[in-house]
Amino acid sequence: MADSNGKRDHFIGVDLGGTKILAGVFTPQLKCLGKVKMSTKPERGPEGVLERVTRCVQEAVDECDLTFDNIKAVGIGAPGAVDPEEGRIIFAPNLKWEDVPLKRVLEKQLGLPVFAENDCNACALGVYETELDPKPRSMVGIFLGTGIGGGIVLDGKPYSGFNRTAGEIGHMILEVNGPKCGCGNKGCFEALASRTALFRKIQTAVKDGQKTVLTDMLGPDLTDMKSGDLRKALRRGDKFVEKVIEEAAEYTGIAVANVINLLNPEVIVLGGGVMDQLADEMMSIIIETARDYALTGTIKGIEIIASKLGDDAGITGAAVLAKRESK
Question: What domains appear along the chain, each with residue ranges and CATH number?
Fold first, then answer.
């Protein structure tokens, strides 16, 4: 467990989300020693949430029988538009935050150097650093979870764009008159293929009389439905769930083709909770659809793969950030 050499050579990675905070302690080789999860409680406002982040970090360090004397730096992936230079959140709609000096507050509370990045950029960095070998020059990560986010790595560094908002892949519009998205637009990728979108589609169809084994499993209201339940329904031969998953995979394939046509990265990695549970069912459809929609010749040699990091992509990437920035 703990390293008794007393060196400051471990790193903390924090994944700050709208519902949960996850903090992990990493060795210099980026092996995760232990992690702690807490609810975010965004209703307490930035001050309350950042106190919880501090507590989560303290508990994770304690869990690994280490002290802050063993920690060199902390990295944090936060939702929304993040200014990595200043380490502040410009705007995070899920948390209802504007202009929050994340770095300054946490450095004061923890007494350690803190580095911040957008959560999806952090996830992409985690995948890039620990799963892709040899390192490609460019990679795009697409993460399908409650929403859909993207992270871009160019020349080995996260690319955040002019206004620090690059990579909003979930808000590419794939159906001009499609379902309404949380952002206010219609037909965003996120409104068509995120976990929220899949669940909404299933629940609406069930209300309209659609039969599915999910109601046998979870009751008529489908409360507490999880991505894993969809996999179970597929295993039980549920044709309706199969069609819903297939459509989501096709939309994802179209999004992948758009990314290929626009950026032409060496590797596209798909991750997030939905992919964790359904990669086996979705990947072949995603790749096939991407081939159909990408311009002739543009997809040649590009790797399209599923991440194996799962829920740990965010904390791993945040630890990579801490390690890179604190040299």
Answer: 10-126+312-325 (3.30.420.40), 133-310 (3.30.420.40)
